[in-house]
Model the fold of this input.
Amino acid sequence: MKKAKYLKNEARRVLQQYRTAIAAEGKGTAIGNIKSAFRIMEARLLHGIGPVHYSLYRLSGVPRERWKSYITDGP
Done:
């Protein structure tokens, strides 16, 4: 039971991180939010950079070719 509750809370936390990063990078417009969502997902899927590090490194202003040089504490 405790594990299920933990997993539920963890899922909420992760989704909140994505929502916050998308809103911050999207500049409050629908098109900006969509573009941000795609870029953040690309960073996660191709380079292992999640939403927190994406925002921290301000990758929205960094060319995609340089993303792989950024280090995160993940595997």
Q: What stands out?
A: The chain has a mean pLDDT of 90. The chain has three helices and no strands. Residues 21 and 56 are 10 Å apart (CA to CA).
